[in-house]
Each structure stands twice: as structure tokens, then as C-alpha cells.
Amino acid sequence: PAKPAHERTSRFLSLILRHSPDTIGLALDRNGWADVAELLDKATRHGTPLTLDTLREVVASNDKQRFAFSEDGTRIRASQGHSLRSVDLELAPAVPPAVLYHGTASRFVASIRQSGLRPGSRQHVHLSTDRETALRVGARYGVPVVLEIRAGELHAHGQVFHRSDNGVWLTGAVPVRFIGFE
Ligand code: HQG
Q1: CA of 103, closest atom in ligand 1
Q2: What's the average model confidence in pLDDT over 126-146?
Q3: Which CATH number is 100-180's, of 3.90.180.10, 3.30.450.180, 3.40.640.10, 3.20.170.30?
Q4: CA–CA separation, 151 vs 129, rounded Å?
Q5: Architecture label for domain 4-78
Q6: Which among 128, 143, 149, 174 could bridge 106 via Cys, Cβ 3.0 to 4.6 Å?
């Protein structure tokens, strides 16, 4: 398990690299990359002291591998979860398995039955390959409910899917008829 200090740093990096880099005056490029030296400098100057060693440890030990360095190590980005519209991860379209899972909270189910799954504030609807992961995702917001998504059928209907570098499946809105409710 990650150290509490690492968990705090991971949350901070999620905020900065997915949602609001301007909080510390940082700019991401169009593919979501931040310059590592600039990130360390600006985080430190804005009250979250961060060294390269700590950053490397947080990235390596992260339970969901949320962040990735560029090959040359000079840049870093979040692998999924962005709300920033300006970021395009340029992930290749991928063919999903027949069934994927979406974890949600019981209080959202009536609304999902009405309007299907929507990306909400993020760029994509997030889907998992296994029920256990979906259960944990849903538990973040209340009593978890796992929905079965007929991803293969949806893909056959022309919907685009992507797989993030850390194994999360990403797609657009999912219409009700492709969702299996428990
Ligand atoms: C729900 C975490 C009402 C949806 C996770 C979800 C994931 C609806 C919530 C990643 C709805 C949005 C994303 C509708 C969808 N009516 N509610 N029509 N359609 N919803 O956090 O999927 O740990 O934006 O079910 O593991 O929960 O941050 O999405 O409950 O991969 O790396 O609206 O975040 O990853 O919530 O989570 P979110 P999510 P990290």
C-alpha cells in the first residue's frame, strides 16, 4: 500500500494533471504532458514541495498507475480521467471485449436507466474489465452497483473505444439499451 504522503501527492497530481494545472500556473501541451522540471518547480513554489525522487516513487508505486513519464523522462501526464477539454491523449481506437463493467452508486441508477451513461465532467465514460474494479469505482460515491455494458455490440454499432495506458476503457455516452442492470 502507498504511504499516506504518497497518496496525498497522487491526489495533488490528479488535480493538476487532469483538471486544473493553472492552480499552480502550469501549462499542459495538447496531449496532456507537463514538463517535469517545471512541475516540480511550480508545485514547490505553490506550497506542495515536490522532488524528482518523490515524483518517481509516487509514479512507480501508484496503485492504478495513474501517471506516466514520457520515454525520455522529461515529461509526465495522467493516463486517464481528464476533465480538461483541451487535452487529447491521442489514444488509438481499440476493439473492446464483449462485456465491460461500470461501477456506479445506487442513487444514480434511476437516472442512468433514463438517460444511459454520460461522461459527466470528464471527457469519457470509464469502464473496467472486471467486476471487482467496477465495485471499487462505484463505492467512491455510495452503495456500489455494477452495470454490465455490452461493449462488443456498442462497438459493432460504430462507437469508438480507447484503452488508456493503465488499462481503463474509455468511450462516449452509453445508450440504455447497451446496459445490463442487476
Ligand atoms: C455517474 C476513478 C446519473 C457515473 C475511477 C459516476 C475511474 C450518472 C458519476 C475514473 C449518469 C461520474 C472515473 C447519469 C453516469 N445519471 N449519474 N445519466 N451517467 N453517471 O468520477 O466512472 O481513481 O466522473 O456512474 O476508477 O466514477 O480517479 O466517473 O458514478 O476510472 O484514477 O456519474 O475515476 O479513477 O463520476 O470514475 P466520475 P467514474 P481514479
Answers
A1: 25
A2: 98
A3: 3.20.170.30
A4: 10
A5: Orthogonal Bundle (1.10)
A6: 143
Determine which residue's CA is closest to atom 18 belonging to ligand 1: 112
Contact 155, 161 (CB under 8 A): yes
The C-alpha atoms of residue 170 and residue 123 are separated, in whole angstroms, by 9
Q: What are the pLDDT digits (tens) for 121-134?
A: 999 999 999 999 99
Residue nearest to atom 25 of ligand 1 (CA): 104
Q: Name the residue with the closest Cα to ligand 1, atom 32.
A: 66
49-80: burial string, b at 16+ Cβ within 10 Å, e else: ebeeeebebbbeebeeebbbbeeeeebbbbbb
Ligand 1 lining (C-beta closer than 6 Å): 14, 64, 66, 81, 104-105, 108, 111-112, 115, 117-118, 120-122, 126, 137, 141, 168
Q: Which one-letter amino acid corresponds to residue 58?
A: V
* Residue owning the nearest CA to atom 34 of ligand 1: 81
ipTM value, please give it.
Answer: 0.97
